Amino acid sequence: MRPWAALVVLLCGTFLANLDVFIVVVAMPALERDLGADGGQQQLVLAGYQLVYALGLAAGGRLGDALGTLRVFGLGMAVFTGASVVCGVAPTTAVLVVARMVQGAGTALMVPQVYRAARTLFTGAAQRRAYAAIGAVMGLGAIGGQLLGGWLLSADVLGLGWRAVFLVNVPVGVLALTLLPWAAGCPRPVRHGPVRADLPGIGLAAGALGLFVVPLVAGGAGGMVWWGPACLAASVPVGACFLRHERALEARGGSPLVPPRLLRLDGFRRGIALIILINCGLSAFVLMLGLLLQRGLDWSPLATGLGMAPAAVAFAGGSLLAPRLARGAEPRLLVLASLAATAGYAGCAATALGTDPRLLIGAVCAVGAALGLCVTPALSVTLRTVPDAVAGAASGVVSTAQQLGAALGVCVFGFLFFAQVRATADVVGAFAVTTAALTTTSAAAGVLARDLPRAAAPAGLREDVPGSPAPRDLPM
User: What residues does the Major facilitator superfamily (MFS) profile domain cover (predicted)?
Assistant: First the structure.
């Protein structure tokens, strides 16, 4: 096994997963023109991917525990790459929507394996550097999506138009699949116990998450749909049934989708809440910044991407710098970084109303750097107390929390943004008001991080589950 080589290959999945959330945004006008996609169909192209992605993450993480990280990652990358080809040649919007959902399924298999590898392959300072690399690649994929998408559309590469934003995934996917056996070191086949899929748990988890996420995504820019509150309310009892089922299955010696002992880890619970808050602000901020530059300041898609590039670099730099600054004191760094993000959001709100775009870009970079400093220690404090045998399940929960936070941020703050636009027809003013409101997410994260030093793993919870794969076992 070549740990760092394996992580680099796995990070290709993280990059593509985040890239494909944002790269498609700039292609919506071309889809409307070439395929006749109406507003609802465009929403399905955007939301179908994220819905399947979010709903499948917990199951994807558990499959990594049962079958091996690299094996499940390879399957997910193959599914994602094949679906990207179908997206790129789709003759109709219906085919494109279905292929995007299949892309989401592939992503749900890939992403949890990256966190599982960081948790089981590395220890100490090396593990913190691995989390830093994950955070940096997440930021580059998310913010760089609009830059790459804008360039592909402006350059009209090979005359492909919007199809290039999907086909660009294919060479990356093929390269990752080609390098995967080499990164694994061609290990001998490893015998695992029989896979005991928690099918009722998967169904209940998908139901609870679907009832929660679908109305948020379906509402889009127009706010909550009329049936949304009923779905949100129904997600609570379904979620309670899921937790009851998982506790009963664990008591019988089964393999629950989300082991309840994870939720008894105080550090894990607090870390999940922290991750939701960080991603809530980050996703809403990236969306509104793109809208401000394109609709408020009339920048082209390529210019918008270039304007967001410094923030991507700052985010990546903050993620890579975080382990050196933390040095085992992640909660303290989280508090300081959260305060910096709060000041950055406020700076963006103030400079957006000015006349010098350089000041705005400077404030955007400050937000990017501060959020980058938040991501790495948040992952570290959340996963460091997790037993190796359930690292995949924990990784699935972490990935799900990221997607839920993103959905919440886009829904809540997106609703506020578009309500301001409808009321005032002033995109710049709406950005300023909404970005000022984003300070609540980073401020709450800072308050939550203050109590993390007292969040330790209860005794006895770091033992492996009998019959589970051994730590650092990443079979093909």
Answer: 6-453
pLDDT at 16: 92
- Flag whether 469 is in a domain: no
In a domain, 266, yes or no: yes
Contact 45, 96 (CB under 8 A): yes
Top mean-pLDDT range of 27-36, 157-166, 220-229, 389-398: 157-166
Which tens digit of pLDDT belongs to each residue from 51-109?
788 778 888 888 887 788 889 999 999 999 999 999 999 999 889 989 999 999 999 99
User: Within its chain, how far is the Cα of 105 from the centroid?
Assistant: 14
d(CA 337, CA 322): 10
Tokens at 452, concatenated: 């993390």
**CA 170 – CA 151 distance, rounded (Å):** 17
45: tokens are 């192209």
Q: What is the DSSP string of 224-274?
A: --TTHHHHHHHHHHHHHHHHHHHHHHHHTT---SS-HHHHT-HHHHHHHHH
Domain CATH for 288: 1.20.1250.20
**Domain span at 324:** 3-185+198-454
In a domain, 476, yes or no: no
Q: Which amino acid is at 153?
A: L
Provide the number of structural domains found in the chain.
Answer: 1
